Structures are given as structure tokens and as C-alpha cells.
Amino acid sequence: MEARCERHVAILMEEVAAFGFATAGRIRFGRGTATEAVGAALSYGRRVLILRGGSVAWVDELSRDLTAAGCDVTEVRSSGEPSVDDVRSAALAGRGAQVVLGVGGGAVIDLAKAAAALIPSDCDVMEHLEVVGEGQPLQADPLPMIAIPTTAGTGAEVTKNAVIAVPDAARKVSLRDDRMLPRLALIDPALTDGAPRDVTLGSGLDALVQVIEPYLSSKANPLTDALCRAAIPQGIAALKRLAAGEDPAARDAMAYVSLSGGLALANAGLGAVHGLAGVIGGQFGAPHGLICGRLLGPVLAANSDVLGASRRFSEVQTWLAEGFDLPETGTFTALSALLDDWGLERLNRWIPEGTDLGETAQEAAASSSMRANPCALSQDALENCIRAAL
To answer: What are the φ/ψ torsions at residue 162 (nearest 5 degrees)?
Structure first.
């Protein structure tokens, strides 16, 4: 018996390849955790830079409470995905800050991470951007940064990069450094209550993709697998309920799925959906979550065609079919019709008829997200994925 146990342990150890796992310094999840922001900020200093969106009134209360506690508060409002100029302006506004708070959707949190990264080194963002910039490492440690998401989608509160739009290059690329992980992530699902339906579904689709792609990733590991296996069915169920109407329990679940996706993608990577989405978003300006949702089915089908029978793809197909009441055969293709039923737009609103998609597919093939795709997809296959989303 002892020899058999030792043999089983040896087999298990052989199957687990070496891996690492990095995340925010501390994570607090649950309704009411946003109230911890003031005390957390004070632990780092009294000169506070807040990057915020405009849709959540609670940020006004946060700013008042920080000021009442003796803080010198500078606010920068942001809308839409941050551009190079937005990053420059935020870093300039934050000179002298001791701590940065990002309160908003993933774009706002990315802007806050970028500002926190660049303020101490007094350098230009283009020196550090991937692909279209110089890709140099940061010159100094970022400022302490506290991330407080108000949407459930990107998981940006636990990732080490900031996605930045570069209009001159018609691309969205990352500013990336392990030190950009927030010191504290406060995930309070109550801040997502009542979000508009299109925002809820778009961000929720992004969250779902971000637990599916790391699960299928060539860089998946046992920890990310455990997160994704639990989160994929949970995300499907929550999305279905939120498509039907407001549901606090589904809001809680979606916030957890978003967090799980951030944890997973930061450590296992993504895939062709995000490889295409970054380029499409940069070239045509379509909303990121909608792009991801519309590409999910076509990319899953394309990957499955190349890989053939796969246990993981079969699991994902079963979860999607059962959770969304889709047919057991042709599940990936049926996702498009489901999004149509939900009233979500197709990408032809942003991508004009007759557009040559070859350049888009070629650029996507070279993106960092594509490196973790479970198989290599040809340019023709990538173009067909885009066409299926139109």
C-alpha cells in the first residue's frame, strides 16, 4: 500500500509543471468592503490622487471622507479607454501624490495603474509601451495603488498591465510590469448595482471570456484551472440572470467571476479572442466587452477545428450549452444567435462593409495575447472569426 501511494504521488508531481502566481498585494471581496478605502489610503500617505469615472456617485463620498481625514485630494475624471495623452495628463496631475486610487471600470483602473507607474520616474509612457513603444522597464517602483472596480468585467484590479490606446498607431497595447499589481484590491459588488444593461452584459461577457481563455490557454496551471473551472459555469448563470433583469445575487457572482478572470489571465494568459479584440478596438473603436463576446463563439469553433477532440473544449461546450440552453451540437456557433436575442450589436456597426481584414488579422497574430492561444490559427482563420462577428 505504501509503495502504491508513493507511486501515485510521483505520478502527480510529474504532471504538474513549474509555474508562478502573482496577484495584488491584498484582496478584499464582499459588499461593504469599499468603506475600507479611506483607512487603506491613509496608511500610504495624505496626498491622494483619485482616478475616477463619472457614473458612480459613491466616489464623491469617498473624496469627501478623504478630505475630512486630512488628505490633499486631486481628482482626475476619465471616460472611455485611456489614451497615451490621458496617461500623460493623469501622471502630470498626480505629481507629488503618495497613493493612487482607481475607482471605476477597467479602463479607469488601467489609467490609475499607468499613472501610479509613471509618476515616480517622470518619464513618458511611450518609453515603456509594448509593440509600438520602446518597451523599456520602469525606472522606479510605482506608487502604492488601490483598485476599486465599479463594473464586473476586466479583472483589472488584480492584473499587472494597463491597456492604453495609441491613436497614431491605431492600436491598443499594454504598459506592463510585475510591480504594477495594485497593493490592494477592494471588490464591492454593491458598486455595480444598477449599472446599465449594455454595460452589464458587455463587461460580463468580457469576464466570461477571461475565465474561458485562461482555462484553454497553453500556459494554464493548476491554480488558474481551479479558479476557471468554478467560475465559468458561475459566470454563465449570472450573465443569463442579468440579461433578464437586475439581480443582486447575480451581481455578486459576476464580480467574483471578474476577479477570478483577472487572477487567471495574469498568470495563464488569454488567447485569440483578446488578440483580435485589442487590434479591432484600436482600429475601429468598438467596445471591448462587446468585441470579446461576439468573437468568443467563432474563436472557440476555430480552435476546436484545429485541435479536434479535446477534454477542455468539451467541458466548455457543455457548460455553455447547459447554462445558456444552447444546442449540444453547434454550441459555439449558436452563441451569436443568443447575443442577437439579448439585443447586443454586431461588429458591423463599427467595421465598414468591404473592409480588408487581412491587416487586422496579421496584427492580431503578433499580439501578446495570441501567444497563449491553445493552437496556432492561420490568418484566414482569424479573418473568418472577424467575419462571423459582423
So the answer is: -130, 125
Give the DSSP H/E element, type plus range, for residue 212: helix 197-216
What is the separation, in whole angstroms, between the first and last Cα of the chain?
A: 60
Of 165, 174, 198, 171, residue with least CA distance to 81: 165
Placement of cell 500617505 in the chain? 45
How many residues are there in the chain?
Answer: 390
Q: Of all helices (H) and strands (E), which one includes residue 77?
A: strand 72-77
Angle 143-139-177 (CA atoms, 0-180°, nearest 5)? 70
Q: Which three cell numbers stand for residue 205?
A: 461577457
Quick check: pTM over 0.85?
A: yes
Q: Which three cell numbers stand for residue 38?
A: 479611506
Cα separations in angstroms, 312 against 3, 21, 72, 159, 275: 32, 21, 51, 24, 20
Tell me what the mean pLDDT of segment 294-315 comes to: 95
Burial profile 310-347: b = 16 or more Cβ within 10 angstroms, e = fewer: bebbebbbebbbebbebeeeebbebbbebbeebebebb
At 136, the pLDDT band (50, 70, 90 cuts) reads confident
319 with 232: CB under 8 angstroms? Answer: yes
Alpha-carbon span 195 to 332, nearest angstrom: 28
CB atoms within 10 A of CB 83: 17
